[in-house]
Amino acid sequence: MNFKIKTLNLKNRIFLAPMERINDIAFRILCKKAGCGLTYTGMINPQTKQKIYLNDKPALQLFCTSNKCIKNFIIKYDSQVSLWDFNLGCPAKTAKKHCFGSFLKDLKIIEDILKTIRENTKKPVTIKIRKSPIAFNLLELAEKYCDAICIHPRTYGQGYSGKPDIDFAKKIKSRTKLPIIYSGDVNEKNCKYFLETFDYVMIGREAIGRPEIFSKIMGTKFEKSFEEYLNLAKKYQIPFRQIKLQASNFTKGVKNSAKIRDKIARIKNIKELERIMT
Ligand SMILES: Cc1cc2nc3c(=O)[nH]c(=O)nc-3n(C[C@H](O)[C@H](O)[C@H](O)COP(=O)(O)O)c2cc1C
Question: Is 254 exposed, middle or buried (0-12, 13-18, 19+ CB in 10 A)?
Fold first, then answer.
């Protein structure tokens, strides 16, 4: 079956949630190979000077505090992304300090940002929000400028703990015709329920170190291999500290994983890592 958000064709309704420090291009490629319908970058500031690898055509998530710099960034990268998402949910201290993510609450500024994104792309545009007093105002803006809305129904105060308020996400769904992408505690066991309740789902923490979760849900064949991650990481010049982090994540569920992680933490180069992991 084929699914569609605006002009974007999707092979299924199960996405990899945007995760900063996790979703490097090598990891995204593995998730896609395992059967994931759409992968996201972590949040990216359009003013970044860092090189961005988008050869896998992911959904790109932006964060910023004003519409400054957005236009040029979109023009530069538009052909390399599948969808543009705007982050209105980040609960981190830096988000509070600089007033972005869930701390960006000025509806006029948010509207300027969404308008700028909308005017500069024909790709689908989405926002990712949390449960908040302005969630329905954001829904109104999404209806004006976006093609879908993603809801992670925890408050910023909850961060990533406590229960997501699924009823709140249902309320959002009941008030709009926009497709709803649900995020929050989705795993291989409950995925079916969320797919019956919402249009799309995102998997975040359950996919960390476990790209195979998508193959388990989709019933596709996929052999997880850190060697494959490593080869991609070399190809895309992923920094060594990031490769080490993924190596640790990949030990999830492996026998003696605490010991292996301890070894990984002390490793100084790729050769040593290859010896332990492959
Ligand atoms: C390590 C980590 C990094 C994250 N980075 C982002 C991010 O860059 N942008 C974003 O919108 N959400 C981010 N999130 C939130 C996830 O996208 C997701 O909404 C949240 O973790 C709930 O889903 P889960 O229970 O499946 O993990 C992050 C979460 C984690 C654990």
Answer: exposed
Q: How far apart are the first and last CA of the chain?
A: 36
- Say how many Å lie between the CA of residue 272 and the centre of ligand 1: 31
Segment (H or E) for 201 = strand 200-203
Model confidence pLDDT, tens digit, residues 144-163: 999 999 999 999 999 999 99
46: domain range?
3-218
Q: pLDDT tens-digit profile of 20-59?
A: 999 999 999 999 999 999 999 999 999 999 999 999 999 9
Distance 217 CA to ligand 1 centre (A): 20
Same domain, 213 and 237: no
The full length of the chain comes to: 278
Residue 20 phi, psi (nearest 5):
-60, 145
DSSP letter at 207 equals G
Q: What is the average pLDDT score of the chain? A: 96
Choose one of 197, 218, 239: the last residue of a domain. Answer: 218
For residues 208 and 271, state if they share a domain. Answer: no
